[in-house]
Design goal:
Pdz3 Domain; alpha+beta; Probable periplasmic serine endoprotease DegP-like; Peptidase_S1_PA; 7-stranded antiparallel beta sheet; about 500 residues; Pept_S1C_Do; hydrolase
Length: about 500
């Protein structure tokens, strides 16, 4: 049995993962193009007596998608190791064939097909797509042309051709979907083809899955598996309200937690791809962190609203507008930033060049900043900008201070001011100011947040720190304001500055 490519990212502890499952105007449309055939199909109250009539009308427009790729492989078993080139067979390459399976659905009588980008785009960078085949439920196969694809939204449009019209379905209004609504998924799980499952919408606008510009999904308990990716999620009127995209699973199989790209997100992008238009998105150029209780406690603001700016990219729209690391963005052009409506989503869906107001909190004060939205870089460019903190701690010869004192008791940290000798050991300039972490109590919140030996503390609650007295004063001030945490701006060797809310231990 042929399986689709699976792309996974850790989501929760316990080996669970989030897996991509290779895989216009609203209105009730059916696969037989008969808008009137849907009436009185489902009882007004209670569960549907059967999904058979609905399935019979929709299933002809749901297709299986298979691809063939040519993958270039190296014959050198030592490729990428220090021994590469020592045995005389470096550079020898060969090719092999790879395949993937997924689902899709026809959205027009002339044969436009919607699926996921990861169904038709090989995840292997050494692979080249050679052929895409679309198979209808009656077994007829058609060679498909890739009309357009968009990696950011994980959407792709194909085109198949025949003399007679194709059955098709249309997008519905996913914004009207509610948790508890019945839905039907049709697709090609594990290559079985023509598989129908039903369930309810478990949640609307589920976020926090990938952190990208389109981190908004419909969650459903309708059983979807590998091979369902790109297939439709229907409402009871026969409208496509979602495109099945991913599952949350500790085993790789369905556990009743599936995710679909909302139709309201997909439909405008599909229209642009069909029209051959370039898809451009707004961009600020900031590294952001969702607001949580620790950050809110450190900043003394309400939790679960706004997003915290960890860093600002030089030369991008945010820096040009005066946004700074440590700002909290509350609204974008009057729209609140919430877990369901992230800063990335709001900005990405704003046309580049548009001037919009951002309401922020800086140093406890509200202010409004006008921003000229920039243009979002490609997925490859964004990936190149990503960074992580250096995991290697530098050697440190300074003696450890006594465990007595306010800083170890409140934060579980032992710190000392940076001297020219320490600066050289850390690989930073002699003019660097701040405190360096010498040791961390592993039971403290600081350890859970990733602080370790060799990390430099630059500021506390927005104010520079050069001595242990500066940090002690900030701790006393936070306690005097009944704050449960303080905000440290820290930098690991070779890494960027990052703001971390550290919870205070109870006073002894």
């Amino acid at each position: 049995m042929r399986y689709s490519y699976g792309i996974t990212a850790a989501l929760l502890a316990g080996a669970a993962s989030l897996s991509l499952i290779t895989g216009f105007p609203a209105g009730a449309q059916v696969a037989q193009n008969d808008a009137g055939a849907m009436t009185n199909m489902v009882p007004r109250a209670g569960a549907p007596a059967s999904f058979a009539d609905l399935t019979e009308q929709l299933q002809p427009a749901v297709v299986n998608i298979s691809t063939r790729q040519r993958v270039t492989v190296t014959n050198n078993p030592f490729a990428g190791t220090p021994f590469e080139g020592m045995f005389g067979n470096q550079g020898q390459q060969s090719t092999r064939e790879a395949q993937s399976l997924g689902s899709g659905f026809i959205i027009s009588a002339d044969g436009y097909v919607v699926t996921n980008n990861h169904v038709i785009s090989p995840p292997d960078t050494n692979a080249e797509l050679e052929e895409v085949t679309v198979t209808l439920p009656d077994g007829k196969e058609y060679q498909a042309e890739v009309v357009g694809n968009d990696a950011d939204s994980d959407l792709a449009v194909l085109k198949i051709v025949r003399d007679e019209p194709f059955p098709f379905v249309k997008f519905g209004d996913s914004a009207a979907a509610r948790a508890g609504d019945w839905v039907v998924a049709i697709g090609n799980p594990f290559g079985l083809g023509g598989t129908v499952t039903s369930g309810i919408i478990s949640s609307v606008l589920r976020s926090g899955l990938n952190g990208g510009a389109y981190d908004r999904y419909i969650q459903t308990d309708a059983s979807i598996n590998r091979g369902n990716s790109g297939g439709p999620l229907f409402d009871m009127q026969g409208n496509v309200i979602g495109i099945n995209n991913a599952i949350f699973s500790p085993s790789g199989g369905s556990v009743g937690i599936g995710f679909a790209i909302p139709a309201d997100t997909a439909a405008p992008i599909v229209r642009q791809l069909i029209a051959g238009e370039e898809i451009v998105r707004g961009y600020l150029g900031v590294q952001i962190q969702p607001m949580n209780e620790d950050l809110a406690a450190a900043l003394g603001i309400a939790a679960n609203r706004g997003e915290f700016i960890q860093g600002v990219q030089p030369g991008e729209a945010a820096e040009q507008a005066g946004l700074q690391a440590g700002d909290v963005v509350l609204t974008v052009d009057g729209k609140e930033v919430t877990p369901e409506q992230s800063l990335s989503f709001l900005v990405a869906n704003t046309a580049p060049g548009t001037r919009i107001p951002l309401e922020i909190i800086r140093e406890g004060q509200r202010r409004t900043i006008q921003v000229a939205v920039g243009r979002r870089p490609s997925a490859e460019e964004l990936q190149a900008q990503q960074f992580s903190m250096d995991e290697e701690a530098p050697e440190q010869q300074q003696p450890l201070p006594s465990s007595d004192g306010l800083i170890p008791q409140a934060l579980g940290l032992q710190v000392t001011p940076i001297t020219p000798l320490i600066a050289r050991q850390l690989g930073v300039g002699n003019d660097t100011r701040g405190l360096v972490v010498l040791a961390v109590d592993q039971s403290a919140d600081a350890a859970r947040k990733g602080l370790r030996r060799g990390v430099i503390i630059e500021t506390v609650n927005g104010s520079p720190v050069a001595t242990t007295g500066d940090l002690e004063a900030a701790i006393r001030a936070a306690r005097g304001e009944n704050r449960e945490a303080i905000l440290l701006r820290v930098r690991a060797r070779g890494g960027p500055a990052t703001s971390l809310p550290i919870r205070l231990r109870a006073a002894q």
